[in-house]
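Q: Given only this backbone (237 positions), what sequence would you predict?
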């Protein structure tokens, strides 16, 4: 189901919808569009663009990807979502300041958070353990909190305007200890953070590591067992 280019559409409330077997996509509708799916439990793919509110309190699983792009809401919560089979993305939503996924344990694709100006803390994922794809964060955030993360099977790209160099120190340790399996790129103090860069030029604290070097190999291996609980936690300044 593709709902787009309806400038006078301001509300969608479907109480009876419980399952989406293929996909639902919203884009370029009314500027203040609110979408309510109070009883949606399972979905294949979900895409939301240019909306002011999305509420899916019963959503438990997404077999494919779920993406939010250029929206105007300030917060989003998926209290019962436990896993996605594909990517989870929040992109170009300048008012977004808070995310809450208290039950999410697995992201089956990539994890993309980019260009959300008001999002100063990437947090709200207390049970997230596994990211099957790559982790890609770019923005103005100055903290990352993921206390249960034990496995990123792809690489990681973290770029922020914040000058908090501790962010990169922690991601570099995570890579050195095998939590992040692919190439790790981290830059703080960058004027224009980018997603999936081909290089790490610019910024005050660039770092890119493909394999642990001698110094990194000397770091304590405890993180391979306990994840980022002590590594990427409570970096609030």
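A: Predicted residues:
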């Amino acid at each position: 189901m593709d709902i787009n280019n309806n400038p006078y559409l301001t509300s969608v409330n479907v109480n009876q919808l419980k399952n989406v077997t293929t996909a639902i996509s919203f884009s370029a509708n009314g500027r203040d569009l609110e979408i309510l799916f109070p009883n949606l439990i399972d979905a294949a793919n979900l895409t939301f663009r240019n909306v002011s509110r999305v509420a899916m309190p019963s959503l438990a699983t997404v077999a494919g990807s779920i993406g939010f792009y250029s929206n105007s809401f300030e917060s989003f919560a998926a209290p019962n979502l436990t896993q996605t089979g594909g990517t989870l993305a929040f992109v170009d939503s300048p008012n977004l300041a808070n995310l809450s996924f208290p039950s999410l344990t697995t992201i089956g694709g990539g994890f993309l958070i980019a260009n959300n100006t008001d999002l100063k803390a990437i947090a709200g994922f207390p049970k997230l353990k596994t990211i099957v794809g790559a982790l890609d964060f770019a923005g103005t955030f100055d903290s990352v909190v993921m206390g249960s993360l034990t496995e990123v099977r792809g690489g990681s790209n973290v770029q922020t305007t914040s000058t908090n160099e501790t962010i990169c120190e922690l991601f570099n340790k995570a890579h050195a200890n095998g939590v992040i399996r692919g190439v790790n790129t981290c830059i703080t103090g960058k004027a224009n953070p980018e997603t999936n860069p081909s290089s790490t030029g610019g910024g005050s604290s660039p770092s890119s590591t493909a394999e642990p070097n001698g110094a990194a190999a000397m770091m304590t291996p405890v993180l391979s067992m306990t994840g980022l609980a002590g590594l990427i936690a409570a970096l609030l300044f």
